[in-house]
Amino acid sequence: MQNKIENTLSSLDKIQPARTQPFFYTRLMARLNNSQQKSWERFSAFITKPSIAFSGILLIIIMNIMAAYLNTPAISEQSEAVITDEYTQVATNFYDFENVKP
Fold it and tell me: Which of 7, 24, 29, 64 could form a disulfide with 20 if both were Cys (CB 3.0 to 4.6 A apart)?
């Protein structure tokens, strides 16, 4: 048992510090700085995802269709007659000419 402990402790004498690839710390700092994006950058990255953009456009189209459908009043026969009367009055007034006798 003592022999195993000695072998384990002697293996620690041969340990060397880990070596990194060139520019490791530069890349690490760039990644850390990049992860701290501003809120507008994160928002724009979220909005520009195809699934979110498609869903937003679809929602806007559905809302426009519903608004157009709900805001068109049903024309009853009485209101149609009133519109027709108003139109004919304007049209006849426009074409009434006075007979001027020479």
Answer: 24
What SS3 class is residue 68? helix
Q: Cα separation of 24 and 27, whole Å?
A: 5
Tell me the pTM: 0.36
Q: How far apart are CA 29 and CA 32, in angstroms?
A: 5
Q: Taking Cα atoms as reference points, which of 22, 20, 24, 40 lies closest to residue 32?
A: 24
Domain that holds residue 60: 48-73
- Residue 61 in domain: yes
pLDDT in tens, 6-64: 888 888 777 888 888 888 889 888 887 776 667 777 788 888 899 998 999 999 999 99
